[in-house]
Amino acid sequence: MPIPLILLLSLLIALARGGRLSNLAHISIRYPILLFLPFAIQLIAFSPVGDILINNILLAQILYLVSMALAIFALWLNRHLPGVLWIALGLVLNTLVITLNGGFMPVSAAARQFAGQPPLTERDMNIIPMTDATLLPWLGDILPLPAFVPFATVFSIGDVFIAIGGVIFIQKSMVLAKPRADHETE
Length: 186
Prior knowledge:
two-stranded antiparallel sheet; mainly alpha
């Protein structure tokens, strides 16, 4: 799912609603390094450089699962922030299907075709083709954006929850609620 695009759109909407980027500086994030470390691990595991450095599929699987576990832990530590529980739920769903399917996200061939993507016959970075042996296929990448949509792709139910949480986080963090004036009648 084009989560970064959705978050950018949410950011623009928040600004149009009078939100301020400076409000993000006042957010109390616990252990921020734990929010960025999973991305660094995945970059190492699934980039062309990582393919050269690692050159071991089992290590890539382990790194992927460790990065997901670290991200879930970091989100749990920051569950006080708006939308973070939605993001955590999405990540737990994705981690569940990835773990049960050998450490990679299964992706539907029909959904890829609908999104205008080429057929997938073997592992590609962190995804694998969905088969009859896929466990919990409804949690895999089965939801396509049609090929005519810019950045068409295939995404999971977990990705939807992550995007919803991200939108909630941006909107509530950037657009602060205005204090209500209480009118007392005497």
